[in-house]
Description:
The chain has helices at residues 10-20, 60-76, 105-115, 145-153, 170-178, 222-233, 252-258, 280-286, and strands at residues 2-5, 23-25, 28-31, 37-40, 49-53, 81-86, 120-124, 139-142, 161-164, 183-191, 197-201, 211-218, 239-246, 263-267, 275-277.
Amino acid sequence: MIVVAGPASGELAARVAKALKCSLIEPELKRFPDGESYVRIDHKFEGEHAVVVQSTCHPVNDNFMELFLLLDTTKDLGAKRVTAAVPYFGYARQDKRFKPGEAISVRTMCKLIERAGADDLLTIDIHEDEIMANFAIPAYNLTAMPLIGRYLANLDLRDPVVLAPDPGALRHARRAAAEFMADYDYLEKTRLTSTKVAMRPKRLSVSGRDVAIVDDIISTGGTVIEATKVLKKQGARKIYAACTHPVLVGKAAQKILAAGVREIISTDTIKHKTNMISVAPVIAESIH
Length: 288
Ligand code: R5P
């Protein structure tokens, strides 16, 4: 087995190679003046199983293109099996036609990964599990939530509640909370009038309790900030925000902290200063 480091995931790829006790290849990557990508892998794979690690975070289109080039080149240089490890899968939120005529972008990306030569694929906490059904090759959606739960367990939280900011993220909150037998819930929105919406945890009170908001992605921070405002009004003590994928565009992290979140906790699917947890063991354990 050998790990190929994609340009978006160099450090994570090195951690995966270490966990798998195998070698790491760092391909040569350049950008031509016209914006095209150049990839060169100085290795003959000769029947090896190669794992290409590349998150498709910002710059999303370049990172996807370089993933396709790496998969195709690895196969062409003799790998007998190529695993695409795409810890953060870009375009996953465009998984249906919200308006007539829209591209179902994530489905296109799945087709292209397969066509580029991947024999199997793994990703982590993809936006919707159903996306995996777009692949004809074996495709696995792993989760970082147990690792997040273990990190939260070590924070010594007072009477903790693990909270999903919406019903869609409840599965994540439940999985993280299970690691330390914490209570979990989700924020429910109730329409009071045509202009007024009330938001509160569905079952639990957060008054005087420490709360960890858990989600798959924090992007603009809008969801976490809205949740934080509600939780503060309802008497929550310390508030933490944890996610698998710290997309954190622009000044999102600063805005979240300014809203009263004590700490942002993320994994290294996307390199960011909030990375407290590595998903390398999750990836390594899933590869056989
Ligand atoms: C939405 O369904 C996702 O799970 C996240 O809640 C969302 O992507 C977060 O986005 P933002 O940080 O921009 O509110």
